Each structure stands twice: as C-alpha cells, then as structure tokens.
C-alpha cells in the first residue's frame, strides 16, 4: 500500500471516529422521559396499557402542527359560513323568480275566469252591458291570454257562446295547468337547492369532524418530525431519550372490555429535564378529553368564537 492510500484510509478512519464520538456524545447527553401508560376505571381499578406507541415531538414542531390544524379548521368554518350565506341568497333568487312567474300565472288565470264569466253573462243573460264589455275587451287586448285573437274575433262577432266555450274548455284549463307547473317547478327547485346546500354543509361538517377527531389529533403527520418514540412494555412503562427542551407526548391505546373496544388518546406537555419528565404519567387527566390543558384545548373555543362572530 503506497503512502497516498495510507493517508486516505487514515483520514477516513479519523472522520469515522469523530462521527461516532459526536453520535455517542449526543446520545449520552440526552435526557430521559420515563413514565407509565395507564387508565383508571370507573370502579377505581388501575389498568396498565402495554404496547402503546408514545411519541415525543418538540414544542416548536407541535405548535406548527397545531397552527396548521387551527387554520384548516378556520378555513372549513369559513367555507361553511360562505356556503350557508350563498345558499340563502340563492334561495331568495329562486323564490323571487318563481313567485313572480306564479303571480303572473295567477293574474292571467284570474282574468281568464273573469272573461269566461262575462262571456257567459253576455250569452245567457244580457249582451248589452257597455261597462262590462269594455272590461272584457280591455283584458283581451293585452294579448296575454292564450287564444286571445280567436276569442276577440268571436267577441267582435257577438258569438258569446263560442267565447264562453273556448274560455271554459281551453283557456282556463291551460292557465290552471301553467299555474300548477309553476308551483311544481318552484317546489322542485327549492327541494333540489335545499338538498344541495344541506349536502355541501354536511360534507364540510364531516371534514371539520375529521380534522378535529381524536384520531387526527394524535396521528402525527409525515411532515412533523418526531424526536423519539417507543412502545410501552407489558407493565405500561416507557422510556424516551430526547435532548433538553419542551415536548409534547402523543399516544393512542385501546383495550377490549367484554365485546366493546375502548379507545384512549393522550396529549401531554412535558419539560425535559424536570421532576415530571422522570415520572411522566399518561393517564385519565391528560387524555384529549381530560381535565388537563393540552395542545388542542383551544379548538373548542375556536368553534365558539367563530359561531359568535357569524
């Protein structure tokens, strides 16, 4: 082996020793989070949970995750409020358009019925009623009533029996059908609109429930770096090695009670080193729905504040 190769190998060896020294020093300089995973049952019996994966995430990274979740929830809430407001405006438009059409058809039907009754009176009772005839021709001159030209021609020829029959058997029934179709169209459009809005709001509600679910709030996203993780042993004990600092612990566990599965979710803040970090209990108080304040405690107030603002 020549001198050049010896130098290369010596350099590589030195670098390897330095790297191992740095890794070993880092490992030895780490602190310990030591604790137990357990639940207290209603009968006060303590159950230790084995094989529960416990994750340690630095406070900085945990809060970044929290901020993203809060922003996502705000976006969903804002989308829901916007969809509801847009739905109200769209419903008003549907009502206005359809009610206008319905009123027009009601007006036409009323005029057609009035003409029918006048034509019958002219035919059977007395054709010489100038005021009523003026009214009859005022209505028909608007050309809005179906078959108005033919009826006008018969009226000009004093064929009141034909006017009456046309209005009774053709015009009035057609306008009644138009009115019925207008009302049916209104109901159909409103039903479709209400169902669409309800479906969209339900989808947003489901998205919000997913974003705020206990599973989502303890399932660490791939973009959130985990400092350390470990499984609890058969006695529920666990030990994590982490650098000094502030951390959040996340864990999920379950057990079967008779034929029912009980699921548990923990989020706990811990300072390292501290008295708590060497006696770290994941129990009833620091479950997500427990009494202890944790990373996600502000989500409920976010919902309340948003509701008050809207």
What's the SSE blueprint?
Layout: H1 3-29, E1 31-40, E2 46-48, E3 53-58, H2 59-124, H3 130-140, H4 148-156, H5 160-211, H6 214-218, E4 228-231, E5 237-242, E6 245-257, E7 260-272, E8 280-282, H7 298-309
Parallel strand pairs: 1-8
Antiparallel strand pairs: 1-2, 1-5, 3-4, 3-6, 6-7
Helix pairs in contact: 2-3, 2-5, 4-5
Structure characterization notes:
The protein is an alpha+beta fold and 310 residues long. It folds into 2 domains: 31-66 and 217-309, Immunoglobulin-like; 80-211, no CATH class. 59% of the residues lie in helices and 19% in strands. The protein has helices at 3-29, 59-124, 130-140, 148-156, 160-211, 214-218, 298-309; strands spanning 31-40, 46-48, 53-58, 228-231, 237-242, 245-257, 260-272, 280-282. The strands form 2 sheets. Strands 1, 2, 5 and 8 form a 4-stranded mixed sheet that branches. A 4-stranded antiparallel sheet has the order 4-3-6-7. A hairpin with a 2-residue loop joins strand 6 and strand 7 (260-272). Helix 4 (148-156) runs antiparallel to helix 5 (160-211). The longest helix is centred in the first third of the chain and has 66 residues, at 59-124. The chain starts with a helix and ends with a helix.
